[in-house]
Specification:
The chain has 207 residues and is mainly beta. The chain has no helices and 17 strands. It has strands spanning 7-10, 13-21, 27-30, 33-42, 45-48, 52-60, 63-66, 71-80, 83-86, 91-100, 105-108, 115-119, 122-124, 131-134, 137-140, 154-156, 161-163. It is globular, with a radius of gyration of 21 Å. The model is unreliable at 187-207 (pLDDT under 50).
Length: 207
Amino acid sequence: ATVTNGSFTNYGIATIQKLSSSTSGTIVRNEGTLTVNNADFTNATLEAVCHTTIKTMKTNGATISIASGSLLSLEDLNATGTKINLAASSILDVTAKVTFDTWSNNLMGPSSGQALARLKKVELIKGGTPITYSGNVEVACSDHTPNEQYNTYYVVNSPAKIVPYDKSTVVIAGTSCNAGGNNASGGNPTDQTVTEVDLGTYSYIFE
């Protein structure tokens, strides 16, 4: 499906093999459950208002917005000159790799509240500053192209921060649009083993 100078909004359950747009007036908005195998957006806008799953996505000059309480799941993302806006309590989850190309990209968290960008691997195409992280966003990533002594490839503007992939501290409550949230209460504790205490010799008296 190709959307040109218009809008596509999903309210139900939709599965699309290929979804593309190359016009700045295009808005693709998901308010239901949307699964896309391959997406290609140039100068278009993607609005993930509920759980949106895309296997492979390429963006150029595009804008991606993830609404509060929502999750955008990707396997592979290749971004050039792209703005990624995360609202409070939103999640960006890239399970394989995100590649930020040389034309500046921006990943921005909210001004209040917290968002999470869980990125399995970040590869930066060296040249300029491919990615700037800003706002209240925690970037959970343990495999990230490093800065060099004389070359800065990524910038982290406080309060944004990078933590190990499996050490996210952001608490996001589960909703019908985010597959259980992140560090949300109500799950089983990771360690339910009762600690054995050695009391030594003792007396037990009762009437």
